[in-house]
Specification:
Chain lengths: 119, 374
Amino acid sequence: MKYMLLIHQGTTPTPNDPEAWGRLSGEEQKGIFQAYQALNETAGVTSGMQMEGPEAATTVQVKDGKTLTTDGPFVEMKEALGGYLFFEADDLDAAIELASRIPAASMGGAIEVRPLVEW
Amino acid sequence: MLAALIGFLGDFELAEEATQEAFAIAAARWPRDGTPEHPRAWLITTARNRAINRIRRDRTLAEKTRLLDAPEPNEDELEEMTFSDERLELIFTCCHPALSTEAQVALTLRTLGGLGTEEIARAFLVPAPTMAQRLVRAKRKIKAAGIPFRVPADHLLPDRLAAVLAVLYLIFNEGWSARNSLAEEALRLGRAIAELMPDEPEAHGLLALMLLHDSRRAARSRDGELVLLADQDRKLWNVAQIADGRAALERALALRGRGPYVVQAAIASLHAEDSCDWPQIVALYSELLSLTGSPVVELNRAIAVAEASGAAAGLELVDRVELDSFHYLHSTRAELLRRLDRTQEARQALERALELVHDDAERRLLQRRLAGLG
């Protein structure tokens, strides 16, 4: 099975928000980087490209042939997608286990596990 | 049978269809040719062959005609065949936390309990098409999301077993009020789980709890009206079931079980004694409270304290419980106030309970008690 893990940062401090990020100790910051590194080195994981924060997002909709452009993500700022990775695993339990190791899952965010359609 | 097939095929819908086909073939063939010596093995093998055919048929249309007449199982080959019991794997799949609780309950009843979709729909008071839709969606999710068909690894087992037991207890409680078939089904599944996981104290604890509660079913209502525990005719209690429940509790305790179901079963066992050991019940509720932190448990503990140490001590604790929207809180307060001769306050508490109650039998019970205050 192939899964896409969508990382929603929620209230997780990230380097995109220097103020919140700065409130973490150096140890904590290091721990987060190490956790992501360990994830990316896990067998079956294909890491995603790094995204700028949702503050940099632009949302585009077309209504009656007219392109509407708005500032910010489609969903609420704190619900916005913060990152993603791919995981090839035997089953959902393995994917849930990997998801629980993503720092955002335990720091105020959530991970959505989506199976990919295989042809 | 379904469990064995799902285990083999890894596909709920395919397994169900193949099972139905096998039964249809049996219905046509057995009366004519006689019942095979190993009916279950015959059915499983037939269903399996049908399913394999279907898989192949879907893959290559060209082979369609040739494979349609794949042979039915040969009686001689069946003698040696055994099919592993895969009910345990199946229940862990059905109660996977990635499914909604409603879906877990429905799927467990459908695939392990063998209840029909309409029956489940009736039991949960939803229209049959809604229930059918719920089941279809759940089965699709199992397949699409890759929910595994196996007993979880040791480090996941405590949480996942708790989820399975919670589903069974939910089914039991749903059946407790009026729908007896559900309670029976929960008991049957509870027995199966305790048998399949003989080293898990909580599995025995839940079975004990359900048996001990169920043993009082006949005494619990008289002419459609609820009868409180203290007023029940003990001759109506099912003695054999109480003994079964206690035996299950003994096993759980021997396994050093001290989880929430074991403690609740211990309380239920004390309630089945001729004279209740209230101080002991208070101690067990304290233990349960530290395990669950539940305000409902806190309320039950307060009731036990009232029995052990008097209504005033109980009332003091009841007034600390934060469950204002729960009618039992107010009916309990009413009873304790009545015992303390604070009739006016007791009446107000009963009126508040009546505002909150939903069940008709419980409403009538409260009305009788209100009238009894004079």
